[in-house]
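Lecture 7 notes. Example A: sequence first, then its structure tokens.
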Amino acid sequence: MNWHNILDHRFKKDFINKWQTLLDANHTENYYQNFLSKNAGLFLGNENCHLVISKLKLGSELETDFVTLTDGFSNGNQFELIEIKRPNSKLFTKKGLISSDLNRAGQQIRDWKRWLIENKAWFHKYLPTTSTRVISESYLNFKIIIGRRSSNPYEIEKRNQIGKEIGAEIRSFDYLTDKFKTRTFYPRSWLESGDQFLESELANPFYQAMSDSEWKKICNSKKLSTFHFYSLHTKQILDNRRYNKGYSNIYHNE
């Protein structure tokens, strides 16, 4: 299936319009998390990322909004832990102080890092990569998605400074819009087997995020590889995938 051509049809334009309308509405944080979860492959995937986990729980008290798994091939799996707030969240108050939403998001990142440092066995099992380092030389990245794009250079500078201090990239919801608009959707992924059918299936960007329980079931079924992840676990990923309505509509119209 040529995913690039399919997404260049009317679907892409209509989908962007729907998304931008949602960004202008005052929905709850959970509403946006759920929408992104149903469209995880479109917004959060890339040519080497074919798996997104929604609401992965770290122990009994902490929970991520999303975790993505990017195949670094021989360099090892790369995970990104994502915290989202609402599009209408502000980064700073009128007095220039850090907003409560951004402050809470930053604290979430700090809590995740501390928990992972203290729970290496869990880390090794459910975020399988070649190292369990969290702070330096880590195979983990952290991201906060909050608010809308600012044209104020002073605010952007402050945002980037805060990001460096907590060790997380801070982005707006408009970043996700731009990422979707400019992304190249390849017809096939890269697998060592060279099986074109599986490569096309894995590259399908209409996949939904896996749940916490679905991902942990896979992790508990066998020891997962810390490198060349998608080549070695293609069947497990595809067997546990669910697709959104956009794919169903396109498939029946082809």
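Example B, a different protein, same format:
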Amino acid sequence: MLKVQDIQYVVYGVGDLDRTTAFMADFGLLPLATQGGRRYFRGAGPHAYIYVADPAAPVGLQAVGLRLAHAADLEQAARIPGASPIEDLDAPGGGRRVRVTMAGGLPLELVHGIEALAPLPMRDPLAINHGLQKHRVNRPQRPEARLDVLRLGHAALTVPDPVAARDWAQRHLGMIVSDALLVPGAKDQYLGFFMRCDLGSTPSDHHSFLIAAGERAGTHHISFEMQDIDAVHMAHEWMRSRGHAHHWGVGRHVLGSQVFDYWWDPDGMRIEHYADGDLYDSAVPATTVEATNDQLWTWGPPVPDTFFQQTRQG
């Protein structure tokens, strides 16, 4: 069975490339190159790019890139019903892809062979003195204020039928469910699924996808990992000082455990900084919970009503 290894990038149509570039620079992503009209952004990690802005495309999600382990996996991917042939990637780092459409209409690109870059300088994660466990002695805590976005961590996707999309991702991508979300009070009516890559005994992120019910195929948010909790808070203060539109945070999620902070980009699309997310290996079974507000966060500001909209209104 084909098994994707990780999420690698997203492609978004943007209304104003310069505005998006300025926002992403404040958010912690660096423009790498402009090629074929698209602008490619990297983080501090080794991926050649993790966000692609396309001013010629309609505003919103255009594709999610998922990494395959082996070149031979591309041949298997090309046999998915409706898949494209194997194509060369005309993008920084080269590589090849197969384009597929997930049940519900979500565009995916299964990729292999994109050349990695040297990681950028970043500060080390902080050693924390917990109440009963002390990890730092004779060393004051003076973290440098940096916006080190490391990588794309996950995408929260919307489809009219999340059960069909879950089944498709299990069958064709080898993904597994971490948590299933039920309509409150229901026993078999699902609102969504947190899904992770199946790497066997190697831990993977609690979710690379959240597949949730929505009126149309699209995205609820994309999420980028930072070094630690201090980095999320420092980024929060920086983004506020730059006048960007805040949405929700800082707080800690229940499912996945991430410390989160959500912002609106210039096109009204939701984007998240996070740190300290859960990792699971394949032995951890799925849980089923009711999709109530209590399952969204353990601490932080109240959930805004607009959190359940796909895009910013007004």
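Note on Example B: The chain has one domain: 6-115+149-299. The chain has a mean pLDDT of 96.
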